[in-house]
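Quick one before lunch.
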Amino acid sequence: MSALARIIGLMRPLRWQMALGLALSVAASLANFGLLFLSGWLLAAAAVAGLGGIAARNAFNLFLPAVGVRFFATMRILARYLERLVTHDATLRLIGRVRAWSFERLAPQAPAILARQRSGDMLFRFVADTDRMGQFYLEVLLPICSAAICCVVSVAVVGAFSRSAALVLAVGLVACGGVLPGVAGALSARAMRRISQQHDAMHADLTEMLQGMGEFMFLGAGQAMQARIAEREADIRTERRRVALIEGGVRSAMTVITMTSALGVLAVADMAYGMGTLSAACLPMLALGGLAAFDVLIPLPAAWQLLGQVHVAAGRVFAQCDTPPCVPAPARPRSPEAPFDLSLSDIGLRYPGADHWALRHADLSVGQGEHVAVVGPSGAGKSTLVNLLFRFYDYQEGTARFGGVDLKDVDADIMARHISVVAQDFHLFQGSIRRNLGIACPSATEEAMWHALRVAQLHAFVQAEPDGLDTLIGEGGVRLSGGQARRLAIAQVVLRAPPWVILDEPTEGLDAGTERDLMAALMQVLPSRTTIVCITHNPAVAARMGRVVRVEGGRFHEAGRAP
Ligand SMILES: Nc1ncnc2c1ncn2[C@@H]1O[C@H](COP(=O)(O)OP(=O)(O)OP(=O)(O)O)[C@@H](O)[C@H]1O
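Model of the adenosine-5'-triphosphate complex:
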């Protein structure tokens, strides 16, 4: 199915509102046509009656056409106003629907997509592309359909007075509304594609630059990046100029065709008048009506151009959303049950596109309540264990069971309810400490938050801040030190109190004293049935766990148990 057909599919629940918007748009445009058409007749008929002497003047009925003029004038304003209300509301709803639909499909793929793509790209897809898809109704479909209906009606109305005038008008309308915008769309397609690509790339560059501003400065790469962005901007400007030139040319041609058609209609009507088949008052009426009929074509060049952009945007979003998730959702999801023991048997996990196994012939059993340190050299497969447990990536070999059920029957959301992680690159959210704790546990009371901060050894810092729990921590927690950020993440885990906790280098960035206090407090406060898996390079932290498992070459080796 084509991308546009799929957008139309997403519009289904809004079809009645959209149809009402179209009806109002047609009503407003036809009212405009009717107003000029009738005004032309009224003025000319009044003039003819005025010249025709007293009898003609008395016989002329001004009242009925004047009512018609007022009716069309009022209807034009009212219908346009209502049309704006209905169509803009429908557009916002459509954008919301497209976003919700694509988010549902993109979210499960996020870890795998982010391993291949820049987060800026992903953000751009999600914000700008879905926005453009939402504009499809308002700025493409609505003007094209409305123009088509209005053109047919205006040709029919003109045809009721003079067939030849209607033919001239129809030719002009087809040239102006169909041929010219189509030609413009084809001529500017390449430039529009290029603008879209450069926009994408520039957005991703900018996001990357803002995220890694410090690193770019340290590496002395800031200027090169700025130059790259400036180059993209210059390219976009050049292409925009090209598009503007084409659009300007098309608009001028449209004006010429509009005027020529109106004159053509007048000339043909004049011939009919000469042959006595048309009254004099009809001449300005048909000429003005002919001119008004072209009004509905004004938005068409922009609509055709946007159509190309919508096609590209929708193609990208659908391609991304259609990528099969690297962990297929289970047909009948099951929930693990206590005791939440883990058993991995002969596991083989290879990342998508990787040529080597991250885990191979890996066996590991962890009973609920055990405290296990996972140690090993960099790249051995420690974080892969976390990815596997959270169902971010699927394993291709072996069997894995958690809480009595096969891991393949459990989806990521269910696993996240049973396991909390404090990872090396844990993300904190923009806003206050209270907000970050609230995201981890929406029902947490203020008292529980302070308790969690105490366990995480962060309460002294928060208490010293004038705003306490409402202290703002900045984007990604930039206003906290590495150690403070880690402790806030630990406070989140304390609030969630899940049966399993994975600590990925929990004390990195902390001094020896804080590290000792933090680990002691954590072990003390987490319920004894909580399993702790602690990934660490720190022998002192590993020594606090009851058991040490060493990962090497993608396999787990028992390296010692506390007596
Ligand atoms: N998303 C990914 N795509 C492809 N390969 C990956 C991906 N993530 C990790 N790998 C590879 O899998 C192997 C195991 O990586 P993993 O991140 O589990 O190591 P680690 O033991 O956690 O290392 P570190 O201690 O440095 O964090 C490595 O060879 C790594 O290059």
